[in-house]
Amino acid sequence: MEEKYTLAIFLRSRWASVACALVALVLLWFSAGFLGVSDDGRMMLAGLAGFLLAMGYGADYLRQRAFYRQLLDACRNMQGSSQLSAWVQEPEFPEGRIAFQLLEQMESQAIAQISQVQRQSQDYRSYIELWVHETKMPLAAAQLIAQRLQGADKLEIARQLDRLQGQVDQALYYARSTSLTNDYVIRSLPLVAVCREAVKRNARLLIEQGVAPQVKVDGDVVVQSDEPWLLFILGQLLTNAAQYGAKTVVLSSKEVEPGTPRGHTRLEVRDDGWGIPAQDVPRVFERGFTGGNGRSRGGATGMGLYLIAMMAERMGIGVQVASEEGAGTRFLLDFPHS
To answer: Is 276 exposed, middle or buried (0-12, 13-18, 19+ CB in 10 A)?
Structure first.
């Protein structure tokens, strides 16, 4: 669509009728002369006819220009809304009415499709939540049974059950993070308590892999976040560190640009594991991307870091990664102060 509906555009769209009008004026001129009208009379007739034609075309142009200008303004200001016709008045000229009716029909179809997608999304989420609920009961029973086992297989069974628990939780948080409704509650959280709880929940894996976690967060540091979602994010980072060769994981915080509009609390999760190949770093937050480490280790889904990025974005938390292969990885979580 043109940025401006100019008179030149209008005349180009009406070239046939304009050409016919000019031919009519020429015929009027010669017909009046054939009928014996003086040159002055013919000039007056032609001038009057031309004036009336110009007035008609001018009025038509102004009506159309108002409609298209309104339509262009609506397209620039609607910001993704499907209710375009609510921003535009139905025009009076025939072509505009046809375009307006077509626009209304397209909107109705779009709204119906959006409603269908919303229903399907809600149905999918409800199914996943039901599946997780039904899965957690036999999983919890299996974990209790595993505690009563003896021998070398006990730890392996417990580890595999923990891994299954993590995958079940990942499926639940993925379903919730893609929902069109907010399933999180942002509130003030003591950061050190959340970090310690995340370490506690992943203690078995950290111990088995020989990982020494350190929490270096002051007790008075408070961040704005949803506690279950933040625990999931930290759990994913701790699990990744343990699975990819880390022997030490340090969680530390600091204040960045305090007292300014850009002020935020930064939580750093640093490990001394394998590190991420340089060519993989820009893609680690992509859905399904496993990278060289994931392919060599096997069993990676490429969903953990993708979920971290998605959940952080939903909560307004900045997330960054810096890594050097063979030296370790740093994940930075930035919690805005306001």
So the answer is: buried
How much helix, strand and coil, in percent to the nearest 5, is found in the chain?
A: 60, 15, 25
207 within 8 A of 177, measured Cβ to Cβ:
no
User: Is the separation of the CB atoms in 65 and 57 below 8 Å?
Assistant: no
pLDDT tens digits for range 87-142:
666 666 777 777 777 777 777 787 788 888 878 877 777 777 778 777 877 877 88
How many other β-carbons are positioned within 10 Å of the β-carbon of residue 270? 21
Show Cβ contacts of residue 271 under 8 Å, excluding neighbours closer than 6 positions. Answer: 241, 244, 246, 248, 249, 250, 328, 329
CATH architecture of the domain with residue range 187-336: 2-Layer Sandwich (3.30)
Name beta bridge partners: 256. Answer: 264
Structure tokens at 144: 């209790």
The pair of three-digit structure tokens given for residue 238, joined into one six-digit string: 């701790």
**Is the CB of residue 214 less than 8 Å from the CB of residue 155?**
no
CA distance 215 to 63: 69
Residues 130 and 119: their CA atoms lie apart, in Å, by: 16
The string of DSSP codes covering 63-113 is HHHHHHHHHHHHHHHSTT-S-GGGGSPPPSSHHHHHHHHHHHHHHHHHHHH
User: What's the pTM value of the predicted model, to 2 decimals?
Assistant: 0.61
Residue spans per domain, the chain: 7-111, 187-336
